[in-house]
């Protein structure tokens, strides 16, 4: 076994590998960018070395620099995690040349399975079932269009290299094909340095079922059962579970055996995942990921195995810890991926400081894999994952209840997250009933992403009580410091000369003003919200950011985080955001020109589709912006005339800058 390994990654997967290595008595070396100098994985490792500036091309993708660190620190092996260099055959070859063990499969297996087209050719020879498609080398539009006609629409255009939904387009008609291919090729080139694509028949309502396989250098190969990863948005997984529900046992076995056959066809070694689409009793190979998957914890929970330990033992030349007939599974597990992103804005990544980050308590049923802590920054440079929340119980219904409770307990303030969206999926009747496929989110979009609702009176009352109690605390400090500590003018108790003791507050719920009046009573408070019957609050306390009160006879506990005049209230899984109204500040913030179209996040302008003076209709595409390796279309919010285009193709833009100005037509 190794004495020291280097982890060529960052974030939660680097922390995950370090935990297992530490348990096994293996020392660890972390590499990091300048932006990650104080990151969690850096502080967890025994040693850490900076390898360059923040951009991944200047740090985490610098294979030569990483190998130099391994040589300098005496690391005998490199664990690549997932992403970055994990499926880079060139890096694996460089490791071999340097005499450092690459904790992954053989170079040729990475190369073959890294090409979706070539992997499908090999799988066809190994009698692994395939979706009808085109995986040829010819990439001219004429050939691709002819193949699409042969396959029959709808077809899926897919980058041959890489994954994660990048370089992928669904095309439903021949008239859309050319634009879809061009867009997929641009994304593929930007993300993977290879713009080749393949075509597949687009299945109507398939499930995404994948098999965890493991092979060693002694000819042994096993499958550690399956995972269902059907809940996806933009072809990226959101919630995964194991085992896949409602599958016949015979089908599970056949899929597992096919996956092992796929691995052995390329002389595979180590951890890998063979992904299938499943529909109407048939299953079809789509790709193999030659690394540890993001969702591997659900397999660990149902098998009781540590897959990172398996990786280390196999890479060190050992045999698989267990053979197929020794592997068992128990119970059911879910994983939910918590991201800093805005589901209401097409899941655009969010950046900012994690002002508050409190996960649910971990125990045998709840596990949290993360690479960030409270106070850390989510930046534009890296994947915006905050954590993976994993839950387990004896059956699917029980595990799903635990997932809903754990999501409701997760507190994140400072960045917009998808926690509420995940909770909506976990609570959806169709999800509970296993009515799932890869189109689940789009089909139930109206339920999962309803328009933002006004903050309820209860949330307003909690916010108002928090503001008042904080003012009381500040007033007490002022009295202690004042020359006349008993002056009523320094009191925040609501005292009024010849008047009822009360406080008037005005909160902004988005752009909507909400008015409240708090009346002091001997046993607590009465809160009037916009003239409605008063809410009664008793036994109100505020300790730090936790407010406890009995509101209309119901005991309530909520977290209220203040950032200047901004208030974030977290209560029973709900998140409400309010702003303490300051008319002067609000007037200063008013922006003119509703036709100004701003960048939703930092990125690069790919194409400008209009020019000044051009008339456009509502919804017309105006500009393509690439951000986080995905293309985003800036569309006209209303009919009008383009009066200014502020950037050209290739320009870098910051979040919030004005990209274009649109003079909105009257009535538009």
Automatic annotation (TrEMBL):
Q: What range(s) does the ATP-grasp domain occupy?
A: 120-316
**Record InterPro entries:** ATP-grasp (IPR011761), BC-like_N (IPR005481), Biotin_carboxylase_complex (IPR050856), Biotin_carboxylation_dom (IPR011764), Biotin_COase_C (IPR005482), Biotin_lipoyl (IPR000089), CPAse_ATP-bd (IPR005479), MCC_alpha_BT (IPR048429)
Lineage, top ranks? Bacteria, Pseudomonadati, Pseudomonadota, Alphaproteobacteria, Rhodospirillales
- Indicate the segments forming the Biotin carboxylation domain, all copies: 1-446
Read off the NCBIfam families from this record. PRK08591.1
Q: Which UniProt keywords apply?
A: ATP-binding, Biotin, Ligase, Nucleotide-binding
Give the Pfam families listed for this entry: Biotin_carb_C, Biotin_carb_N, Biotin_lipoyl, BT_MCC_alpha, CPSase_L_D2
Superkingdom, taxonomy of origin: Bacteria
Indicate yes or no for the key word Magnesium: no
- What organism does the record attribute this protein to? Azospirillum isscasi
Q: Which Gene3D superfamilies match?
A: 2.40.50.100, 3.30.700.40, ATP-grasp fold, B domain (3.30.470.20)
Q: What is this protein called?
A: Acetyl/propionyl/methylcrotonyl-CoA carboxylase subunit alpha
Q: Which cofactor does it need?
A: biotin
- Annotated Lipoyl-binding domain ranges read 588-663
């Amino acid at each position: 076994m190794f004495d020291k390994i280097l982890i060529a990654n960052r974030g939660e997967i680097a922390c995950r590998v370090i935990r297992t290595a530490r348990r096994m008595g293996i020392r660890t070396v972390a590499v990091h960018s300048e932006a990650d100098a104080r990151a969690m994985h850096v502080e967890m490792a025994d040693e850490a070395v900076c390898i360059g500036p923040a951009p991944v091309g200047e740090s985490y993708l610098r294979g030569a620099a990483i190998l130099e660190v391994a040589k300098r620190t005496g690391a005998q092996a490199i664990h690549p995690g997932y992403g970055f260099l994990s499926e880079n055959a060139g890096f694996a070859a460089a490791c071999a040349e340097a005499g450092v063990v690459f904790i992954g499969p053989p170079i040729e297996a990475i190369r073959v399975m890294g090409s979706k087209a070539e992997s499908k050719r090999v799988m066809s020879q190994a009698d692994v079932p395939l979706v009808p498609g085109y995986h040829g080398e010819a990439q001219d539009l004429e050939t691709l269009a002819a193949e699409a006609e042969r396959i029959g629409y709808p077809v899926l255009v897919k980058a041959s290299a890489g994954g994660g939904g990048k370089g992928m387009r669904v095309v439903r008609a021949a008239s859309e094909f050319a634009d879809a291919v061009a867009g997929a090729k641009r994304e593929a080139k930007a993300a993977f340095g290879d713009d080749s694509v393949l075509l597949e028949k687009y299945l109507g309502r398939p499930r995404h079922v994948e098999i965890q396989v493991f092979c060693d250098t002694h000819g042994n190969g096993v499958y550690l059962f399956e995972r269902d990863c059907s809940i996806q948005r933009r072809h990226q997984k959101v919630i995964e579970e194991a085992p896949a529900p409602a599958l016949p046992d015979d089908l599970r076995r056949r899929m597992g055996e096919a996956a092992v056959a796929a691995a052995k066809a390329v002389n595979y070694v180590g951890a890998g995942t063979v992904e299938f689409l499943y529909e109407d009793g048939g299953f079809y190979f789509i790709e193999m990921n030659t690394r540890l998957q993001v969702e591997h914890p659900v397999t660990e929970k149902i098998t009781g195995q540590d897959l990172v330990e398996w990786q280390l033992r196999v890479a060190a030349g050992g045999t698989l810890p267990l053979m197929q007939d020794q592997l068992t599974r128990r119970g059911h597990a879910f994983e939910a991926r918590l991201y800093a992103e805005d589901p209401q804005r097409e899941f655009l990544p969010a950046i900012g400081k994690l002002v508050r980050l409190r996960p649910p308590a971990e125990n045998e049923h709840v596990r949290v894999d993360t690479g960030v802590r409270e106070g850390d920054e989510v930046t534009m440079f890296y994947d915006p994952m905050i954590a993976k929340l994993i839950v387990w119980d004896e059956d699917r219904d029980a595990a799903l209840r635990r997932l809903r409770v754990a999501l409701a307990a997760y507190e994140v303030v400072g960045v917009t997250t998808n926690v509420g969206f995940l909770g909506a999926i976990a609570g959806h009747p169709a999800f509970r009933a296993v009515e799932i496929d890869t189109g689940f989110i789009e089909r139930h979009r109206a339920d999962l992403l309803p328009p933002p609702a006004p903050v309820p009176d209860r949330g307003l009352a909690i916010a108002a009580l928090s503001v008042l109690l904080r003012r009381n605390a500040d007033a007490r400090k002022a009295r202690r410091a004042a020359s006349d500590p008993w002056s009523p003018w320094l009191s925040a108790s609501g005292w009024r000369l010849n008047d009822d003791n009360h406080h008037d507050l005005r909160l902004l719920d988005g752009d909507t003003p909400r008015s409240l009046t708090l009346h002091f009573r001997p046993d607590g408070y009465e809160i009037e919200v916009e003239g409605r019957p008063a809410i009664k609050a008793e036994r109100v306390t505020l300790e730090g950011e936790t407010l406890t009160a009995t509101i209309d006879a119901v005991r309530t506990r909520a977290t209220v985080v203040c950032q200047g005049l901004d208030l974030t209230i977290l209560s029973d899984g709900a998140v409400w955001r309010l702003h303490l109204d300051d008319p002067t500040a609000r007037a200063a913030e008013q922006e003119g020109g509703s036709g100004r179209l701003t960048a939703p996040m930092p990125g690069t302008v790919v194409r400008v589709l209009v020019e000044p003076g051009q008339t456009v209709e509502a919804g017309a595409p105006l500009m393509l912006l690439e951000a986080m390796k995905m293309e985003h279309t800036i569309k006209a919010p209303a009919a009008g005339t383009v009066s200014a285009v502020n950037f050209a193709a290739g320009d870098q833009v910051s979040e919030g800058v004005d990209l274009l100005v649109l003079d909105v037509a009257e009535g538009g």
